[in-house]
Amino acid sequence: MIGFIGLGIMGSRMAANLLEEGYDVMVHNRSKEKAEPLLEKGAQWAETPKELAAQVDILYTMLANPQAVEAVAMGENGFLDAMGADSLWVDCSTVHPAFSRLMADEATKRKIRFMDAPVAGSKIPAERGELVFLVGGSERDVEQARPHMNAMGKAIQHQGGHGMGTSMKLVINLMLSETMAAFSEAVSLGEGLGLDKEKVVGTLLNGPTTAPFLEGKKEKILQNDFSPEFPLEHMQKDLQMVSQSAFEAGVSLPLAHAAKETYGLAKQFGYSKDDFSAIYHFLSTKK
Amino acid sequence: MIGFIGLGIMGSRMAANLLEEGYDVMVHNRSKEKAEPLLEKGAQWAETPKELAAQVDILYTMLANPQAVEAVAMGENGFLDAMGADSLWVDCSTVHPAFSRLMADEATKRKIRFMDAPVAGSKIPAERGELVFLVGGSERDVEQARPHMNAMGKAIQHQGGHGMGTSMKLVINLMLSETMAAFSEAVSLGEGLGLDKEKVVGTLLNGPTTAPFLEGKKEKILQNDFSPEFPLEHMQKDLQMVSQSAFEAGVSLPLAHAAKETYGLAKQFGYSKDDFSAIYHFLSTKK
Amino acid sequence: MIGFIGLGIMGSRMAANLLEEGYDVMVHNRSKEKAEPLLEKGAQWAETPKELAAQVDILYTMLANPQAVEAVAMGENGFLDAMGADSLWVDCSTVHPAFSRLMADEATKRKIRFMDAPVAGSKIPAERGELVFLVGGSERDVEQARPHMNAMGKAIQHQGGHGMGTSMKLVINLMLSETMAAFSEAVSLGEGLGLDKEKVVGTLLNGPTTAPFLEGKKEKILQNDFSPEFPLEHMQKDLQMVSQSAFEAGVSLPLAHAAKETYGLAKQFGYSKDDFSAIYHFLSTKK
Amino acid sequence: MIGFIGLGIMGSRMAANLLEEGYDVMVHNRSKEKAEPLLEKGAQWAETPKELAAQVDILYTMLANPQAVEAVAMGENGFLDAMGADSLWVDCSTVHPAFSRLMADEATKRKIRFMDAPVAGSKIPAERGELVFLVGGSERDVEQARPHMNAMGKAIQHQGGHGMGTSMKLVINLMLSETMAAFSEAVSLGEGLGLDKEKVVGTLLNGPTTAPFLEGKKEKILQNDFSPEFPLEHMQKDLQMVSQSAFEAGVSLPLAHAAKETYGLAKQFGYSKDDFSAIYHFLSTKK
Q1: Domains, chain D, with CATH or none
Q2: Given 3-state DSSP classes, what are the helix, strand and coil percentages for chain B, each rounded to the nearest 5?
């Protein structure tokens, strides 16, 4: 039996793909409501993380931040003390490397194996089983999880030991956040200089200076419709983890911090729940 | 007869493509030395911009910055007062929109037509005739220059009236400079977190968060060899023009300015003449 | 006869102090309305800068920016061609050093003497005759203007040749703008951490980390009343001149540019006409 | 008996003032060497924090960062489990508010009282007993510690409950770090524009735009001698705590982060152990 805790935008789609592939899956989520569609498809329900832990050999978690992971793992009715010896915990949450290593230590103390396996890709790739897993852990653990990850994703990139999957995830989200902000500045500048917005967006997307993922943000920017795929407040939170990890590594990131504070100001002006591409709307405001 | 003034890295390759296509070309450059390879291929030489102006119907300029353009156009022995009525000046230099419009006014006063036509693409595309022309001017002017631009480039994007080609060029260079800096921060962070440099570069280049042009910077970053295609000091100069134009347009660009000052610090630490990807080397310095 | 052109917040108060000291003053301003109080006190009116120029030996200008200075000096009915040989033009406007030197050159060509003499101090010091003059020019010119500057100010600091007064003025406004922004961030952080706003402001103002001028911003910040002494948009404009001058000098200023873009965003959100201390209000917004 | 743990630049001077005032003091430090001068003046030595805890009613700690505090309090041979019921722990270290509150909770669980009391002032004020204590805790705790704090400082500012002393300390260090960087940029700009360095420094220090503490940095900047009073790497570490606390409070600080990354770059270029005013030297480098 596979366990899955955390059924938000990402987790619900990932667990659905496991079910579809024919796996037995037991799920838990803070609010049971979000589990209902999965239960209808045959998933089993556990009332608490602890209860779930006792019945699975491998457990996936997909949660919002380190605090949420820690609470579910080690808080009241947490799963960590209830997992069987030599079972495997795969944390797919976006956290920071020091936290992944801390969780690895806590697991190891209890003779449980641990792997950090955050994913690249958001809502649509999660739905289509096209995520990319960025993995930190041992070869043995990767092999055990490989069939499940193949059900949920299209690629598995083994980056190294504990924390290395998480490290690569932060690198990617750094790139994502800065590139989104750069594109927003470029379009905003173009409009300010009198260019046609659609022309600017088109010229940039067709040229070599613009990352492919921005094609997916095109309509949001042209229509000023920022319904969330990846909420702005999550991106800003990830940048804070980048900041902390970069500090610990002795690496300076001037643009990442300019981006972080700009997303932060956007949050203060009400864009928290919008897609992170709403940074464009914040930057091009004229009152 | 076509005139061409400014035979640097870009201009020499552009003029060579005109010659190859069979056009009669008269050239001028501050130092005659750089013109020699073109003269051997059949180009004619003019001692001064003024002398050249009297003998051509259409004149292309490709110079380092607004000051250089102004000097060649309106300084001693400048071409502008010597051009024939209804002749066409096409300025391919990277300048700022207000300057392009100023030149358009100066030309118009003298009954000369003007078009701003800066290019996207650096050394290699210039050589291969694969530049993209970003054009600001009238339909008639675009049509007259079209065959020449086709000889030097692979696409012509007409953005609007005077200054609009230049505007789009600044938008593209903004994107280029920020994306290069973002990539440098991402690789630097990855290394700081203990990831393998080659793995980080590879993972990013194969993912959707990374602009295609960075493939061309891969070896520079992996080998720490920053021989210039687009010198860092030119990128920083372009960012200063972005800054001035954005100010005039009432547009704030927090990341662009963080980038500008980071390139500026790199300049202070000796990277002026290196390729602008040397920003990676500056950012990842550990003494 | 002394000439005075530019009767805004600063200029009107400066000219009034000259009158009070018993000098004959001839004034001009774009709108005559603002001159009325001075005319009542005995000033004479000139319809144009040109008309004024013919009747004075020394001419003071106090205008909003380089463009305004250039228009009044060299535009239609400008004063520069009408000034008598060996007369003295003292420009008190806040401009950038390259512009001051350009004006010095234009004056010298016409056998007119030039001095840049921008002032430190805003509305209240202007009223009380307590400005500090930052002067770039020759000893002889300083001596001729000294009695007037003493009537309008409390100190004269001769910084060097043409452009050096303006250079020091930019240095001071850089300091002013960053310190105001730093104080705003500090108060905003304190409030965010749950400290009492008045306590934070008091503790900072009584400690060694806080510049004396901030005492004068205390009530604005405590009362959230940002009636202008020095409008935010002027500060942002000065920072753009700082940016351009620093670029020309090869000096990188990461905080100054972060400040410039933050004031710029505040402008976009409607704070242009408020005092520049309104940057606090922008930064502490929570929607 | 008073306990004192942490005898670095600050702690050694603070403990010396307690001894001078006639108090019985028992000290501990990671390396005993640094305790020798105090032992000669009559202080007693404890081999471990735990051993010390059992013999004092009130315990002061002055350590480098949260990790050091946590290790000494709760690591092997930590003091927290060994302190008597109702005894008082006063933490003078610069940490972040969430950490102070965490320590308060850990203390409270063990029926020990806690007060955060970081200080404003560095080496010289510590020596002269002129520190300012920024205090978070109960009235009763403040009263018990008041005589000691009076021996070590000149003022006690009670900011509120647990964490509020620490909060104010971060606010002050934010102000300090940005103001130092702003001054460095101003001097660097002045020199770049051709002004005399001494004149720039003098003009700024005599004007209202410059914080009093900068008088104490004057000679360092004029002589390019950056022997440490407050090491640059500590300031950068404090800015990281500011960053984390501001994030938790939902407050954006664009300049503070530009400062943090600039200090960070200076660290990468070898200025870690210099005084934090060495940011001037980094910024004005020209290679």
Answers
A1: 2-161 (3.40.50.720), 168-283 (1.10.1040.10)
A2: 55, 15, 30
